[in-house]
Amino acid sequence: MAVCLPDTQDDAPSIPIKLTRVGVTGVKKLLQLERTNKRPIILLPTFDAFVDLPNDQKGVHMSRNPEAISEVLETVAKDSTVDIESLCAEIVNKMMTKHEYAKRVEISMTTDFMFMKESPVTKNKTQEMAKLIAKAIGKRDDKGNIVTRKSIGAEVIGMTVCPCAQESVKESDKNKLLEFLDEETTQKVLDTVTFASHNQRGVGTLLIEVPEHSIIKAEDLIEIIESSMSSPVCELLKRPDENATVMNAHRKPVFVEDCVRNMMEKIANKYSGLPDDVLITARQENEESIHRHNAFAEKVTTLGELKAELNID
Description:
alpha+beta; nine-stranded antiparallel sheet; two-stranded antiparallel sheet; 11 strands; about 35% strand; about 30% helix
């Protein structure tokens, strides 16, 4: 005879306060995404899953969160048309069913993603790593209807060169050149030579909401992030590649603020046809080479607000 165990989560709490997010973090799963006429993509994502908790319930049924994740991965992942943000949306719907008391459900997923690229000069093929990010948030209205919004994003490492330090070096060298060259010749040298500066390893992050029936490729977001810094970086670089990477980066010095603005402008131009209420987050953190601190910049906005700032119709 089965023993009926008490379900204390459904008891009333001693302090009747509503909680915004309760759930589990760090749920790791193996995910194989099938692709038409291509090899499947193998990912090892980490999920965080949360629900809100009303003030008359002591706790959530924690096991239902990883249970919902497992059930969706076993079914949806076999569909060659599925994308990771839609997968997160399916988990939200599953959790809404399991947590009938919840008004809001949130799922986030991060995973390493391997992509191929070529070195700039020798064209050696090299495997590069980025992080993919997917999120979905579901809200239940008073009539029981569920509205889900999903997002896709990426986090990529690149290289930035400080414009301020480069201008200082340039000015110092100009004064030295004028000691033995005329102004015209000095200017020719300044226009020809690439000047030194300190540089940083930059980490760019871009996240954009995906409306229904719209497709946003993670590879496109990776390209936007990389091109918004001074230079992409590459795992395999021969000597000509190293030279090209350093020279190209120093020809395109950018502040941490520039990286965010570059990402936003590229997003606004590429996805101008999406609805105005699409939420966009761009973030850049540069690991400084001559300071012990990092530099950080971020912008969170809607596409409509962004296009208005940039005067894009």
